[in-house]
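User: Structure tokens for this complex, please. No commentary.
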Amino acid sequence: MGMTLTEKILANKAGKKEVAPGEIVTVEPTWVMSHDNSAAILLKFKKTGVKKVWDPEKVVIILDHTVPPPTAEYANNHRSIRNFVKEQGIVNFWDMNTGICHQVMAEKGYDLPGAVIVGADSHTTTPGAFGAFAAGIGRSEVAAIWATGKIWLRVPESYEIIVNGKLPKGVFAKDLALHIIGDVTAGGAVYKAVEFKGETIRDMTIASRMVLTNMSAEMGAKNGIIEADKKTEEYIKERKKAPYKVFHPDEDANYERRYEYDASDLVPKIAFPHTVDNVHDIDKAEDIEINQVFLGTCTNGRVEDLEIAARILKGKRIHPDVRMLVFPASWEVWREADEKGILRTLADAGAMVMNPGCGPCLGAHEGVLADGEKCLSTANRNFKGRMGNPNAEIYLGSPATAAATALKGRIADPREVL
Amino acid sequence: MGKVWKYGNDVNTDVIFPGKYTYKIMSDEEMASHALEDLDPNFAKNVKEGDVIVAGTNWGYGSSREQAVKCLKAAGIKAIIAESFARIYYRNCINLGLPAITLKKEDIDKFDAGDEVEVDIENGVITNKTKGFEVRFPPFEGYVMDIIKAGGIIEYIKNQGNRE
Ligand code: SF4
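Assistant:
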């Protein structure tokens, strides 16, 4: 029986010829990642009685969620993490001047084909864009891996999502992701591996592929994955932190379900409050007035995202009743966007260009909404209270939609301004 | 050897361990006394050490609360046998040392409440003494078996001793 991409990677890591869905394998992960929550994880780790992490070169810690810290409590957490990192000799530590964990994992060369990556964050599905098996796990499990170097994983059944056709002008990976999630639904792929394939995916940039794997978590998937190709190898060439191996799914692999989409007839999409699968065509949203536009996050805070927004806003001013917050996903993104003049263009249009990090995505700081306000966000979640106020509403869209919306003061179709 | 407690599909964590107790710190006995409170008030009163639960699909969906596993373990449940488990519930079971066994529907249907059964975790055999049949399941893989034998992942790690 042939194997899917996910099955191949897990079999290889487990040192087996073959694995089948439902089977449990034990593997040593290539990397185990955590962020500001490392402060809680290290307390759990200490309770195990183990003194040293199993391999200080495989633990990756990235500070991104509340940077710079808004309260003494958060600052204390950061300090306890820094102390732990020193005491354990953890080499792969990235302090708050680096960027959002899922972006940093890619930039710093941890996202590699064939790798098994687990992390204490639900969007740890993101490295799947590089042909890695990557999944979110709980904090206690991260502590257990620090102690033992092992994790057991149940091999998930795979779905294949095949997308062909060229994305029309004004329609982006984010619109495709929203469309797919609206169709599959928020619980439609629970525990499954979703493998994206087809010419649309092959034509995508790495940054766009990351949108799809990042948002796989929003269909409940255990992991999202895309076969590595030349573009992947090009991206990782100068960055890679470890050797890697490229796997391909077998022709006769067994997929539990197949979804097929034609990208060429897609339109811009909006996820309405308060669930990510509440997806509508943009024309259903066009008279909704917006108070804040949030461009950034691990979903859509990369250079191509800021660039399309800058193209739309160049030489214009955003609507006077809108606040636009821009959070580059990392300092590398910040620098490249700066060199290209993108940040200046956005600032000239009236946007606030903020420090890289998660920003207001999780509602901890930097841009909380007032009661009754509406936000158009490029993030991956619009749950009630997600951005810090349960009395506010979050609409999700692409970076182009975000820019068009900032111009008009209401949700606007980017095809009209591109 | 123990008795079967049989339940249906989609039993969620709220009826396994009511949400109103989740933020109260409780002893194991106290937790056990609330197990399945909203689904089967007879359970906590009559469950015995060594009993098993047999259920349909999606056992344990809902919240990630570990108490929904702990309360059953504390009540003496030796294994949960179901057609399928919610993902986090399944992980919690193993990591807390309670075997979660998946069987096909036709096998699940053979069990009735009150049947006397014996579960051999090591060899992957469930024997129904009342009805006189055996069902096999793939035994747990090495590391998972070690966790279950230790009574949970934390106990497993502690048994490993401290490594410098
Ligand atoms: S940007 Fe948002 S979704 Fe991404 S890691 Fe940060 S908080 Fe999570």
